[in-house]
Amino acid sequence: MKRWLANRTLRRSVALLALLALWEACSQIGWLNPFYAPPPSAVAKVLYSIFADGEIWPHLEATFSAAIIGLIAGLVLGIVLGFAAALVPLLAELLEPVMMLLNAIPRVILAPLFVIWLGIDLASKVALALILVAVLIFFAVYSGIKEVDARLVERVRTLGGGRRVLIREVYVPSVTAWVMGTLKVAVGFAFTGAVVGEFVASSRGLGYLLQFAQSTYNASLTIALILLIMAFVLVLFALSERLERRLLRWRYM
Amino acid sequence: MIRVQDLTLGFGGEPILENIDLEVKAGQFVSLIGPSGSGKTSILRAVTALLRPQSGRVERDVELNQIGFLFQDDALLPWRTARQNVSLGLRIRGMAVRQAEAKAEQWLALLDLEGFGERYPRQLSGGQRKRVAIAQVLALEPRLLLMDEPFASLDAIVRTRITQELLSWVEREHLTVLLVTHDLEEAISVSDVVYVLSQGPRARIQARHEVHIARPRNVLETRRHPVFGPLLRRLWDELSGEAVQVDYAL
């Protein structure tokens, strides 16, 4: 008894299973209305069926494509703009207010505009995921460079390092640490962008399916899709963490 | 080697230092002592052109790339191993990576850090990090060494040991050194000349003392030398006089 209590993963798994069992029992007894809160077994059946008949794959492909392309493009754009703004004061003057404004508003409100500009296909979802990620990464890079340890800069200068050496030896590693710290949030943002974009207007994707499930009052499918998105984001979180530990191994040794 | 003439330094407002005259001859070990805030570090920064003087001149007969600068903080790159940190300056100066890292290993071994090359700074103790920083600077074979209280953060035993190792190296290689320190005993035991700065702002050189103790020196043995005690008392009186003035002013 004491041994399994000491294992955190086991403790959490048991707690989750107990919650699911309670939920199932409440549904079976009739305490919960299955129309609003279908039992876990019904959700599991829906999950099985959408995978078994292959219906889910094109939707998964659409959401993943939009999220991953948006994530990568957002990372690249955020890093480039962040570096440019930190190193060129004139660019900082132009970019900082725009980015501050974009950061201050809930950026998902741009989704309808992207649909008008780019249509209901992949591009508008990528654009929304991109803008969500790019603003986040811009500030990570910009602050990372602004708050770089001045002692390290002076050290490299006294060793004879110029601008290029400083960027390679101090700024890039320092910024990498900041970016890796926000990568998990960026992954979440990329999926938010893709799903919300699909929710607004699309013919494919998990967001589109969610919209369909909501319009048909299909709570089982809605919960199944939410669980699916959570599972994929958790997998990507784990991958981000592995990447962070690899790139920042100096921090974890 | 270094001649500072009528130097005034500041950051826009009232000068922190003014009319500073100071000379470090080739092969000399010179210390600069003074109260906190008197601008000692700023003089070192002016010598390395990291700080531009408001007026006055800094002349030196060595190029910037012949100057080694040891900071109060070890300031090692946390994402580079000890070997990569030591080889950094060599690589900046154009040495091939493999050659630079081989030389870095030699320097680490010289400073009792053999086998520590693969470790990151956070895996090293304060004393070991300081040795890596020393190796990083000495690997460049500087002709002039500027040190800003480099061992202030170390405990007394490690500090004495590293100071002795560095002093022996400086004496063997006839390096020219300008050291900034708060530690009067350290200043006397390693230096040929000690300059005393007055309290800032508008700090000035208030005294210059020659230390007539033969080399090579042992940092502990020098403390028993007949010159040591009287000079220590004199430096103490000069600096505590400054402190009393500040107390009254407050």
Could you describe the 3D structure shown?
The complex is a heterodimer of chains A (253) and B (250). With 253 residues, chain A is mainly alpha-helical. Chain A has two domains: 1-32; 50-252, MetI-like fold (Orthogonal Bundle). Chain A contains twelve helices and no strands. Chain A has helices spanning 2-6, 8-29, 40-52, 57-87, 89-104, 111-118, 122-146, 150-158, 163-200, 206-215, 219-247, 249-252. Chain A is globular, with a radius of gyration of 23 Å. The model of chain A has no long low-confidence stretch (mean pLDDT 90). Chain B has 250 residues and is of the alpha/beta class. Chain B folds into two domains: 2-62 and 144-249, 3-Layer(aba) Sandwich (Rossmann fold); 76-142. Chain B is built from seven helices and nine strands. Chain B has helices at 40-47, 82-92, 97-110, 126-138, 156-173, 184-190, 228-249; strands at 2-9, 17-24, 29-33, 55-60, 67-70, 144-148, 176-181, 193-197, 205-210. Chain B has a six-stranded mixed β-sheet with strand order 5-6-7-3-8-9, with helices on both faces. A three-stranded antiparallel β-sheet of chain B has the order 2-1-4. In chain B, helix 2 crosses helix 3 and helix 3 crosses helix 4 (126-138). At the A-B interface, helix 8 and helix 9 of A face helix 2 of B.
Summarize the structure.
With about 250 residues, chain A is mainly α. Chain A has twelve helices and no strands. The relative contact order of chain A is 0.12.
Notable features of this structure?
heterodimer, A: 253 residues, mainly alpha, MetI-like fold, 12 helices, globular, B: 250 residues, alpha/beta, Rossmann fold, six-stranded mixed sheet, 37% helix
Helix/strand-derived class of chain B? alpha/beta
Which geometry of chain A do the CA atoms define? globular
Q: Please tell me the total number of domains of chain B.
A: 2
Roughly what fraction of the amino acids of chain A lie in strands?
under 5%
Share of helix among residues of chain A? over 70%
* Order of H and E elements of chain B: EEEHEEHHHEHEHEEH
CATH C-level category of the largest domain in chain B: Alpha Beta
Helical coverage of chain B, percent range: 25-40%
Name the quaternary structure. heterodimer
